[in-house]
Design a protein that fits this description.
binds iron/sulfur cluster; Lambda Exonuclease, Chain A; five-stranded mixed sheet; alpha+beta; 9 helices; globular
Length: about 270
């Protein structure tokens, strides 16, 4: 008899960390999510980075005009799909153009691309009863750096002395994506003894903050324990998982389950 399979994206673990109950609901009761302008800003930038990155892989040397025209095409395609504008349209558009320009001048020249947006699905581990698989799509595989991931939020996570990076030490402690993607890179090379690098490049209004996170065998062993906690919870087939109210996501603006979860009691405008 074939074994039961559990498959996760790294973002599932991020959701689990923010609120286990939110992940349970996403798995068993997925809801259509409204598209907001912050997501669209990130999606357009990622689409430009991918399109231009693919041209580089094809041997083409892109110009800034190419970057802008690709951005304009994605703006025209994606802006009409926005349901909720968290910032004025002009501001989002200006941020997109600033980000792609900053990326083109300051980040792309540092990369030696070998792949962009290449999907993986690999078996992480198995027991006598089940298999656990990881799937995902890293933004960039780089011949020198390893895995590079872009983030295009509305502001840097936290500024120390007026500069981004004040949260780097704390972020490095818990970042799950770097665990997953470095493990996948080790799996690809069949070398689980070497430390790998994950590069998290945050781009805001054309400025960027580059955080390099190193992960190795101890981190991956810890990741396995973390993932098995999720698997065991899912295998227990419970009607509800623990709720976490401490994440910023636990509110009417960021959790699509608010009205059927905590918001049942607190209403639409709780604070
Ligand atoms: S409303 Fe809060 S507790 Fe409920 S699923 Fe969303 S984040 Fe979790």
């Amino acid at each position: 008899m074939s074994k039961q399979q559990w498959t996760y994206r790294q973002s599932d673990f991020g959701t689990f960390s923010a609120c286990p109950e939110q992940l349970r609901r996403k798995i068993y009761d997925p809801l259509p999510q409204l598209t907001n302008s912050d997501q669209t800003r990130g999606n357009i930038c990622h689409a430009v980075f991918e399109d231009i990155g693919q041209r580089v892989l094809d041997g083409y040397v892109p110009l800034m005009d190419d970057v802008n025209s690709v951005a304009a095409w994605h703006v025209a395609r994606m802006f009409p799909t926005v349901d909720v504008w968290n910032s004025p349209k002009e501001r989002i558009e200006a941020a997109v153009y600033a980000n792609v320009e900053g990326w083109f001048h300051d980040i792309l020249p540092k990369l030696s691309l070998t792949a962009v947006e290449e999907q993986f699905r690999v078996k992480f581990y198995e027991t006598d009863e089940y298999e656990v698989w990881l799937t995902g799509t890293p933004d960039v595989e780089d011949a020198v750096l390893g895995t590079v991931d872009y983030k295009c939020p509305g502001s840097f996570r936290k500024k120390g002395n007026g500069k981004p990076g004040g949260e780097d030490w704390n972020h490095t402690r818990w970042d799950i994506q770097s665990h997953v993607y470095t493990w996948v890179a080790a799996h690809k090379d069949n070398d689980f003894d070497s430390v790998r690098e994950f590069h998290r490049v945050e781009i805001v209004e054309g400025e960027h903050h580059w955080l390099t996170i190193r992960r190795g065998p101890d981190d991956w062993a810890a990741l396995r324990d973390f993932v098995d906690g999720v698997v065991q919870l899912q295998r227990a087939d419970l009607a509800v998982w623990p709720q976490n109210w401490t994440s910023y996501k636990c509110g009417p603006k960021w959790c699509e389950y608010w009205s059927v979860c905590r918001g049942k009691h607190l209403g639409d405008n709780p604070w």
